[in-house]
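Practice set, problem 2.
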Amino acid sequence: MSKNYETVIGLEVHVELATKTKIFCSCSTEFGGKPNTHTCPVCTGMPGSLPVLNKQVVEYAMAVGLATNCSITRYSKFDRKNYFYPDNPQNYQISQLYLPICRNGYVEIDTPAGKKQVRIHEIHMEEDAGKLVHDEWEDVSIVDYNRSGVPLIEIVSEPDMRSADEVIAYLETLRQTIQYLGASDCKLNEGSMRADVNLSVREVGSTKFGTRTEMKNLNSFKAIAHAIEGERERQIELLEMGRKVVQETRRWDDNKESSHAMRSKEDAQDYRYFPEPDLAPIVISEEWINEIRSRQPELRPQKLERYHREYDIPDYDAEIITGTKHMADLFEETTKICGKPKKVSNWLMGETMRLLKENSMEAEEICFAPEHLAALIELVDAGTINGSVAKEVFEEMFKSDIDPEKYVEEKGLKVVNDEGALRETIEKVIAENPQSVEDYHNGKKKAMGFLVGQTMKAMKGKANPVMVNAILQELLA
């Protein structure tokens, strides 16, 4: 009889910070760019070059630490982590082992069993490595140092997660928090948020940890969930066969949906860490911590609480809208202009979500201004345009942020309230559809809908529907 197993998961999450320049030099951190154009002697590890710490990196690290309930280390230092690999130009990485900037925090996640705290062991600052590009055709590897020296924080959790769902909930919470802080865009597809999964299995009820493996190369939530399920099954299979799990680093291949061993897992002593001689320790005062604390924005949990108090919108709408800072800002700014939260929410939850999905876009890519959404809502409420025209105008606004008032004027989309013109059109529709008129008189209510539709079609969707119904009923009576 096979045993019951529990999965034990801890994460190492690397986040590229949103500074304009690198951690130890003034080169640009912009994503893209021709290979090796965002480089200088410092970030390419030239002999004699010296690092200078970017203050903004420390402030972002502190902001993330405070938002994840960590204590800030008042006396923090950098260390050299020695390893030899072509994408690491100095043959060492400047990181923090002994005195990381943040320690002992937690993130609260929602699980089917209720709220759960995932503890954070530490957050440390470090520099990113360059990027190796493997050319299979030429059978060579070429290196791009644009990413070398881009500032990172590494958020190391305790092994508190027990399923792929809990891992995704933790990552989602981290991503939202960091995006709200403006500390990173956390785009997994651009590598500005990367997660390594440490996973082991043990018999249910056991308090002793199993042997863990580390999974790398995970650049989407889907890949992370698949890798967790795949590695769990692999380890259980080994144990059931009476074999041992080897502590090693494994690489996940999303196309093959399987992993393979890369190297045996290193320990800290393998890296020969020692204090970084070229950088002074960072001394953090109470005043500096208070200054960062005072600049912290309203984060998602507080925003949700306030939405329940201030706005008359469903809980589900509030959950979706606060899911990204950009959507929440758009909602709040539009509501401030027009004072109609329910209508703003309807446009965001309906047409906006539909167009994002159709165009495979993220909420951060919404380009229309809150002023324009507020103006569109006012046009509908004033009866200047009807619902179907509003949707047409909104599609244009979503694409290129047009001014809806000007667009309606230029395209002649205003509702026709001219009774004479409407009556003339309706008389024509009645004359052309004798069968529908007869059906209406025989009590078939659908016939009225058909005649309204024909009138709207004839008026190119611009007729006032209330007036159309009233005139139709009068003429048919």
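Problem 2, part (b): a different protein.
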Amino acid sequence: MFFKKKKEEAPAPAPAQKKELLYRENIRVNCEPAPKNDVIRSVGQMLADSGYVDQPYVEAMIEREKTFSTFMGSGLALPHGVEAAKKEVKASGIAVMTFPKGIDWDGNEVHVVIGIAGVGEEHLDILSAIAEKMLDETAAKRLAEGDADTVYSILTGKE
């Protein structure tokens, strides 16, 4: 007796992998002080190297800083691109640099710089979540002085 062999179904294509908002390799702690624009380019380049943004977004972060400072108070700066650069964002993500000695950010002392790229309006949610964490002075101090695992844990809520 002959049996018809069942046609093998092709596996369904895997859905696009959603990127994590923060990867440990995008955290640099104990950085030496550097000029503000160099720091912005560094966090922007981390975003580009991780596939969150296309390269032009990095310069758009510098452009944003020319129109208004991204200094948020509490030793925190949150550089991000201008509205026109939204098309350069491929996935929402952040990159972090900490400066225990502090850096000058238009006359303000900054210890934590978090570069942000957000798809659509997600950047507002990201900004809000970071600002909320920084309201806790203990968490803000731990963020500025901690190792990469501490920074990762505070910003993601994961161990």
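Answer key, part (b): The beta strands are 27-28, 71-73, 76-77, 93-105, 108-117. The longest strand covers residues 93-105.
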